[in-house]
C-alpha cells in the first residue's frame, strides 16, 4: 500500500485537451470551406449559369 492520496483532478487533462483541439480544428476547417464555397445571394450569376 502507498500513502499517496488519490486526486481525481489530475486525471483526464490529456483527453480534454485532445477534444478541445479537435473542436478547434473542426471549426477552422468548416470556416475555410465556408469561405471557399459561399456565394452571396446578391452576387450576379456567372455567364455559364445564365445560359441555363
Provide a descriptive summary of the structure in words:
The chain has 52 residues and is mainly alpha-helical. 56% of the residues lie in helices and 0% in strands. The chain contains two helices and no strands. It has helices at 13-37, 47-50. The mean pLDDT is 84.
Span of the ends, CA to CA: 79 Å
Q: Which ranges are low-confidence, i.e. pLDDT below 50, for 5 or more consecutive residues?
A: none
Strand content: under 5%
Residue-averaged pLDDT, rounded?
84
- Rg, alpha carbons: 24 Å
Q: Biggest β-sheet: count, sense, barrel?
A: none
Order of helices and strands: HH
Helix content: 55-70%
Instruction: Provide a count of the helices.
Output: 2
Structural class: mainly alpha
Shape: rod-shaped
Question: How many DSSP E strands?
Answer: 0
Compose a concise summary of this entry.
Helix content is 56%, strand content 0%. The protein is built from two helices and no strands. The termini are far apart.
Write the topology of this structure.
Layout: H1 13-37, H2 47-50
Summary tags:
52 residues, mainly alpha, 56% helix, rod-shaped
Amino acid at each position: 500500500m502507498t500513502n499517496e492520496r488519490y486526486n481525481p483532478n489530475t486525471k483526464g487533462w490529456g483527453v480534454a485537451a485532445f477534444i478541445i483541439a479537435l473542436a478547434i480544428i473542426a471549426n477552422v476547417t468548416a470556416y475555410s470551406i465556408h469561405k471557399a464555397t459561399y456565394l452571396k445571394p446578391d452576387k450576379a450569376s456567372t455567364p455559364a449559369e445564365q445560359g441555363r
